Amino acid sequence: MEGQTTGPISEEMFHSFLQLAVKRQASDVHFEVGYPPTYRVFGELLAAKYPPLTHEDTEAIANFVLQAPGSGFTPLDFREVDRSYSLPGVSRFRASIFKQRGSWGAVMRTIPFAIPDFASLNLPEVVQTIAEARRGLVLVTGATGNGKSTTIAAIINHIIQQERLHVVTVEDPIEFIFQAGKGLIIQREVGADTASYSDALRAALRQDPDVIMVGELRDREAADICLKAAETGHLVITSLHTPDVTRSIGRVVGLFPADEQDTVRARFADNLQAIVSLRLLLRADAAGLIPAVEALLATSTVREAIREGGARVQDLRNYMDTAGADLGMHSFDQYLYKLHEAKRISLDTALGNATFRADLERRILIETGGRSA
Q: What PROSITE patterns is this protein classified in (predicted)?
């Protein structure tokens, strides 16, 4: 993609950059003033061979996305907006359109048409166990870009393909489009189909759901409604931008005022089914990414620890690796050890992502007889 004709970028050229993103297996494409289109491939940023984008280029891109059929948006009405964008025959994208220093910018995240299954995502068996829960609260957590949405989509797809259940999703924006299975599914997009997560959640409880999927647990009101839905026998699946299991527990409780937190801990403990935390890591062969997974299942011991809070919650890391191991639980460090032992990630990757680096390094050195490679 050498050179640029006069005038702003064409829609055809914009689409060619998106096509190349899919071909390169890029997770995201950045369109920002002063830089060429830039791809994130296996965690690294790679610039396209194209001149730096101008104000006119990025405004044109914002127009292509926001004025797509059915969007209901125009750039002049917004400072930032997330929405879905489809390129037929290529991929779907989650578009984040924003203004920075008076100019438009866009980050497009690739979303495949086909929903991957647990095996192709390299997820452990415990995730399928979690997908077979039929009531309570399931949290999928991790930093942005670490596979939360894809994992939740795989869980939802497993449910509707296996059982005749009614699923309602509330997303901002809609990412994966689910195909017909044994179950029924309603997908609602915040902004386009409903005013807010809270409004859609209240309505969902009146739509005869078996399963409710909430794209992100953002505030106290949404958390309270999710807990009420779980308390009334629904399965609620949602995500949090938290790095691990213990901090996910703290985040949910911390959404509520201090004088409510003891009650919330009890409600959360009673209704939690599982927490899955994800970190995408570069594979040892550098040919792709593989998830490191921390998984907690809500046993009686886990529920008691959540009710008590404090140090008992911190102790759950050890519990996952010992008593919980027979049920498929594991902490990040335990999972990193297994990935390294299987030569799926490098030593540097394992140690660089460890919760307790020194402890993991010591264990690896002992198991390898003092060899650090």
A: T2SP_E
Q: In one letter, which amino acid is 329?
A: M
3-state secondary structure 258-295: HHHHHHHHHHHHHHEEEEEEEEEEECCCCCCEEEEEEE
Angle between helices 220-231 and 197-204 (to 10 degrees): 10
Give kind and range of the element (H or E) at residue 172: none
Sign for the pseudo-dihedral over CA of 130, 131, 132, 138: positive
| pLDDT tens digits along 47-103 | 999 999 999 999 999 999 988 765 555 555 667 888 889 999 999 999 999 999 889
- In angstroms, the CA 170 to CA 186 distance is 9
The CA angle 221-224-225, to the nearest 5 degrees, is 90
- What topology does CATH give the domain 125-330? Rossmann fold (3.40.50)
CATH 3.40.50.300 fits 11-111, yes or no: no
Q: Where in the chain is the domain with CATH 3.40.50.300?
A: 125-330
- The alpha carbon torsion through 130, 131, 133, 137 (nearest 10 deg) reads 70
C-alpha 30/C-alpha 96 separation (Å) is 10
